[in-house]
Write a structure and sequence with these properties.
Number of domains: 2
Distance between the termini: 13 Å
CATH class of the largest domain: Alpha Beta
Number of helices: 13
Number of strands: 10
Order of helices and strands: EEEHEHEHEEEHHHHHHHEHHEH
Radius of gyration: 20 Å
CATH topology of the largest domain: Nucleotidyltransferase, domain 5
Strand order of the largest sheet: 3-2-1-4-5
Protein backbone atom coordinates (compact mmCIF):
# COMPACT_ATOMS: atom_id res chain seq x y z
CA UNK A 1 0.00 0.00 0.00
CA UNK A 2 1.14 3.56 -0.71
CA UNK A 3 2.35 5.60 2.25
CA UNK A 4 1.80 9.35 2.56
CA UNK A 5 3.78 11.34 5.13
CA UNK A 6 2.55 14.85 5.97
CA UNK A 7 4.65 17.23 8.07
CA UNK A 8 2.14 20.03 8.60
CA UNK A 9 3.20 23.49 9.65
CA UNK A 10 1.04 26.57 10.07
CA UNK A 11 1.96 27.91 6.62
CA UNK A 12 3.00 24.88 4.56
CA UNK A 13 2.62 21.11 4.67
CA UNK A 14 5.67 19.16 3.47
CA UNK A 15 4.37 15.91 1.95
CA UNK A 16 6.01 12.79 0.59
CA UNK A 17 4.23 9.94 -1.18
CA UNK A 18 6.06 6.61 -0.94
CA UNK A 19 4.98 4.06 -3.53
CA UNK A 20 7.06 0.96 -4.13
CA UNK A 21 10.61 2.22 -4.51
CA UNK A 22 9.65 5.72 -5.64
CA UNK A 23 9.23 8.93 -3.68
CA UNK A 24 7.29 12.02 -4.70
CA UNK A 25 7.67 15.19 -2.64
CA UNK A 26 5.18 18.03 -2.85
CA UNK A 27 3.90 20.92 -0.78
CA UNK A 28 0.37 21.84 0.24
CA UNK A 29 -1.29 24.50 2.40
CA UNK A 30 -0.47 24.39 6.09
CA UNK A 31 -2.67 22.92 8.82
CA UNK A 32 -2.62 24.56 12.23
CA UNK A 33 -4.85 22.20 14.17
CA UNK A 34 -4.91 24.46 17.23
CA UNK A 35 -5.99 27.70 15.55
CA UNK A 36 -7.49 27.09 12.09
CA UNK A 37 -11.20 26.65 11.41
CA UNK A 38 -12.43 23.22 10.31
CA UNK A 39 -13.21 24.47 6.81
CA UNK A 40 -9.71 25.83 6.33
CA UNK A 41 -8.10 22.58 7.42
CA UNK A 42 -10.50 20.53 5.26
CA UNK A 43 -9.49 22.63 2.24
CA UNK A 44 -5.82 21.97 3.03
CA UNK A 45 -6.48 18.22 3.35
CA UNK A 46 -8.33 18.29 0.04
CA UNK A 47 -5.32 19.97 -1.60
CA UNK A 48 -3.13 17.13 -0.31
CA UNK A 49 -5.62 14.57 -1.65
CA UNK A 50 -5.70 16.24 -5.07
CA UNK A 51 -1.91 16.09 -5.27
CA UNK A 52 -1.59 12.54 -3.89
CA UNK A 53 -4.26 10.96 -6.06
CA UNK A 54 -7.32 8.83 -5.20
CA UNK A 55 -5.73 5.42 -4.63
CA UNK A 56 -5.84 3.99 -1.08
CA UNK A 57 -2.89 4.83 1.12
CA UNK A 58 -1.65 4.78 4.68
CA UNK A 59 -1.34 8.36 5.96
CA UNK A 60 0.93 9.62 8.72
CA UNK A 61 0.03 13.18 9.74
CA UNK A 62 2.41 15.09 12.02
CA UNK A 63 1.32 18.54 13.18
CA UNK A 64 1.76 20.94 16.08
CA UNK A 65 -0.99 20.60 18.64
CA UNK A 66 -1.82 17.03 17.71
CA UNK A 67 -1.84 14.11 20.12
CA UNK A 68 -2.28 10.42 19.37
CA UNK A 69 -6.08 10.80 19.34
CA UNK A 70 -7.16 13.37 16.76
CA UNK A 71 -10.15 15.67 17.28
CA UNK A 72 -13.29 14.36 15.61
CA UNK A 73 -13.47 17.24 13.14
CA UNK A 74 -9.96 16.51 11.85
CA UNK A 75 -10.79 12.83 11.40
CA UNK A 76 -13.92 13.84 9.48
CA UNK A 77 -11.84 15.99 7.15
CA UNK A 78 -9.51 13.11 6.31
CA UNK A 79 -12.39 10.66 5.99
CA UNK A 80 -14.07 12.91 3.43
CA UNK A 81 -10.92 13.56 1.40
CA UNK A 82 -9.31 10.10 1.78
CA UNK A 83 -12.26 7.68 2.20
CA UNK A 84 -10.07 4.57 1.75
CA UNK A 85 -7.09 5.64 3.87
CA UNK A 86 -5.76 4.53 7.23
CA UNK A 87 -4.64 7.63 9.13
CA UNK A 88 -2.17 7.94 12.01
CA UNK A 89 -2.23 11.27 13.86
CA UNK A 90 0.88 12.40 15.74
CA UNK A 91 2.45 15.59 17.05
CA UNK A 92 5.35 17.45 15.48
CA UNK A 93 7.39 16.37 18.48
CA UNK A 94 6.82 12.71 17.59
CA UNK A 95 7.92 13.55 14.05
CA UNK A 96 11.16 14.96 15.47
CA UNK A 97 11.67 11.92 17.73
CA UNK A 98 11.18 9.42 14.92
CA UNK A 99 13.28 11.49 12.53
CA UNK A 100 16.32 11.87 14.77
CA UNK A 101 16.14 8.70 16.90
CA UNK A 102 14.51 6.19 14.56
CA UNK A 103 13.74 3.11 16.66
CA UNK A 104 16.39 3.80 19.33
CA UNK A 105 16.12 5.69 22.63
CA UNK A 106 17.23 9.30 22.62
CA UNK A 107 16.32 12.93 23.19
CA UNK A 108 14.56 14.89 20.46
CA UNK A 109 14.17 18.65 20.24
CA UNK A 110 12.62 21.24 17.97
CA UNK A 111 14.33 24.63 17.72
CA UNK A 112 12.41 26.97 15.45
CA UNK A 113 10.35 30.03 16.32
CA UNK A 114 9.66 28.21 19.62
CA UNK A 115 11.31 25.23 21.28
CA UNK A 116 10.15 21.81 22.40
CA UNK A 117 11.80 18.59 23.56
CA UNK A 118 11.16 15.07 24.78
CA UNK A 119 12.72 11.79 25.89
CA UNK A 120 11.91 8.92 23.52
CA UNK A 121 12.28 5.21 24.26
CA UNK A 122 12.37 4.06 20.64
CA UNK A 123 8.59 3.77 20.36
CA UNK A 124 6.89 6.42 22.48
CA UNK A 125 7.56 9.75 24.15
CA UNK A 126 8.12 8.90 27.80
CA UNK A 127 8.91 12.32 29.22
CA UNK A 128 8.47 15.93 28.17
CA UNK A 129 9.60 19.17 29.79
CA UNK A 130 7.14 21.90 28.71
CA UNK A 131 8.66 24.63 26.56
CA UNK A 132 6.68 27.33 28.38
CA UNK A 133 6.11 29.56 25.36
CA UNK A 134 7.98 32.75 24.53
CA UNK A 135 7.08 34.41 27.86
CA UNK A 136 7.91 31.59 30.28
CA UNK A 137 10.59 29.79 28.30
CA UNK A 138 11.21 28.61 24.73
CA UNK A 139 14.91 28.69 25.54
CA UNK A 140 17.09 28.07 22.51
CA UNK A 141 14.50 29.31 20.02
CA UNK A 142 14.43 32.21 17.57
CA UNK A 143 11.72 33.97 19.58
CA UNK A 144 13.79 33.73 22.78
CA UNK A 145 16.86 35.11 21.01
CA UNK A 146 14.79 37.96 19.55
CA UNK A 147 13.21 38.68 22.93
CA UNK A 148 16.63 39.00 24.58
CA UNK A 149 17.85 41.28 21.80
CA UNK A 150 14.82 43.58 21.93
CA UNK A 151 14.90 43.69 25.73
CA UNK A 152 18.52 44.87 25.60
CA UNK A 153 17.73 47.36 22.82
CA UNK A 154 14.92 49.13 24.68
CA UNK A 155 17.15 49.37 27.76
CA UNK A 156 20.09 50.78 25.80
CA UNK A 157 22.32 47.76 26.40
CA UNK A 158 23.28 46.92 22.80
CA UNK A 159 26.81 47.77 21.62
CA UNK A 160 26.69 51.16 19.82
CA UNK A 161 27.25 49.82 16.30
CA UNK A 162 24.56 47.16 16.69
CA UNK A 163 22.14 49.66 18.24
CA UNK A 164 22.62 52.07 15.33
CA UNK A 165 22.16 49.30 12.78
CA UNK A 166 19.03 48.02 14.54
CA UNK A 167 17.49 51.49 14.71
CA UNK A 168 18.29 52.13 11.04
CA UNK A 169 16.84 48.80 9.85
CA UNK A 170 13.67 48.67 11.90
CA UNK A 171 12.88 52.28 12.93
CA UNK A 172 10.89 51.01 15.92
CA UNK A 173 9.53 53.13 18.71
CA UNK A 174 9.26 51.78 22.23
CA UNK A 175 5.47 52.07 21.96
CA UNK A 176 5.43 49.95 18.79
CA UNK A 177 7.59 47.24 20.39
CA UNK A 178 5.27 47.07 23.39
CA UNK A 179 2.19 46.98 21.13
CA UNK A 180 3.53 44.11 19.04
CA UNK A 181 4.72 42.06 22.02
CA UNK A 182 1.68 42.53 24.25
CA UNK A 183 -1.18 43.08 21.79
CA UNK A 184 0.09 41.93 18.39
CA UNK A 185 -1.37 38.94 16.51
CA UNK A 186 1.84 36.85 16.71
CA UNK A 187 4.22 38.02 19.44
CA UNK A 188 6.48 34.96 19.21
CA UNK A 189 6.76 35.31 15.44
CA UNK A 190 7.44 39.03 15.81
CA UNK A 191 10.27 38.47 18.27
CA UNK A 192 11.64 35.57 16.23
CA UNK A 193 11.85 37.83 13.18
CA UNK A 194 14.79 39.65 14.83
CA UNK A 195 16.91 36.51 15.14
CA UNK A 196 18.52 36.95 11.68
CA UNK A 197 19.70 40.41 12.76
CA UNK A 198 21.61 38.84 15.65
CA UNK A 199 23.11 36.07 13.54
CA UNK A 200 24.24 38.60 10.91
CA UNK A 201 26.41 40.20 13.61
CA UNK A 202 27.89 36.93 14.82
CA UNK A 203 31.64 36.80 14.21
CA UNK A 204 31.79 40.61 14.10
CA UNK A 205 30.47 41.57 17.53
CA UNK A 206 31.21 39.50 20.66
CA UNK A 207 27.88 40.57 22.15
CA UNK A 208 26.01 38.81 19.33
CA UNK A 209 28.01 35.60 19.72
CA UNK A 210 27.44 35.65 23.47
CA UNK A 211 23.69 36.23 23.02
CA UNK A 212 23.38 33.22 20.69
CA UNK A 213 25.50 30.95 22.87
CA UNK A 214 23.70 31.89 26.09
CA UNK A 215 20.36 31.20 24.42
CA UNK A 216 21.50 27.67 23.54
CA UNK A 217 23.18 27.18 26.92
CA UNK A 218 19.93 27.91 28.74
CA UNK A 219 18.16 25.43 26.45
CA UNK A 220 20.63 22.67 27.33
CA UNK A 221 20.59 23.41 31.04
CA UNK A 222 16.91 24.18 31.61
CA UNK A 223 15.36 21.70 29.16
CA UNK A 224 17.63 18.93 27.88
CA UNK A 225 19.42 18.77 31.22
CA UNK A 226 16.19 17.59 32.83
CA UNK A 227 16.25 14.28 30.96
CA UNK A 228 18.43 11.19 31.13
CA UNK A 229 21.82 11.54 29.42
CA UNK A 230 21.11 10.21 25.93
CA UNK A 231 22.13 11.15 22.38
CA UNK A 232 20.32 14.25 21.12
CA UNK A 233 18.80 15.05 17.75
CA UNK A 234 17.50 18.51 16.89
CA UNK A 235 15.05 19.56 14.17
CA UNK A 236 14.44 23.11 12.97
CA UNK A 237 15.58 25.70 10.49
CA UNK A 238 16.84 27.95 13.29
CA UNK A 239 18.98 25.14 14.71
CA UNK A 240 20.34 24.22 11.28
CA UNK A 241 21.25 27.84 10.50
CA UNK A 242 23.28 28.10 13.72
CA UNK A 243 24.66 24.55 13.80
CA UNK A 244 28.32 25.46 14.54
CA UNK A 245 27.36 27.56 17.58
CA UNK A 246 24.84 24.96 18.73
CA UNK A 247 27.41 22.16 18.55
CA UNK A 248 30.06 24.28 20.27
CA UNK A 249 27.82 24.98 23.27
CA UNK A 250 26.66 21.35 23.39
CA UNK A 251 30.26 20.20 23.58
CA UNK A 252 30.94 22.63 26.42
CA UNK A 253 27.87 21.27 28.24
CA UNK A 254 28.98 17.67 27.56
CA UNK A 255 25.88 16.88 25.50
CA UNK A 256 26.19 14.52 22.53
CA UNK A 257 24.36 15.75 19.44
CA UNK A 258 23.93 13.03 16.84
CA UNK A 259 21.91 15.00 14.29
CA UNK A 260 20.79 18.53 13.43
CA UNK A 261 18.39 18.88 10.49
CA UNK A 262 16.19 21.68 9.17
CA UNK A 263 13.28 19.31 8.43
CA UNK A 264 12.16 15.97 9.87
CA UNK A 265 11.18 14.58 6.46
CA UNK A 266 14.52 12.88 5.53
CA UNK A 267 14.60 11.17 8.93
CA UNK A 268 10.94 10.14 8.64
CA UNK A 269 11.61 8.58 5.25
CA UNK A 270 14.42 6.55 6.81
CA UNK A 271 12.11 5.58 9.71
CA UNK A 272 9.49 4.19 7.32
CA UNK A 273 11.92 2.65 4.83
Amino acid sequence: MRRLIIDAGATTSDCCLMEGGTLRRFRAPGMNVASMQEGTVTAAVQAVADAAGPDPCRIHLYAAGLVAEAPAWLDRAFSRCFPQAEVEYQSDLMAAARAVCGHAPGLAAILGTGSNSCQYDGETIVRRVPGGGFILGDEGSASCLGKNLVADYVKGLLPPAMAEDFARRYDLSYAEVVRQVYRGPSPAGYLGSFAPFVTAWCGREPYADALVEENFRRFFRRMLGRYDRLPVGIIGGFAAALEPALRRVAEEEEIEIQMIAASPMPGLLAYYA
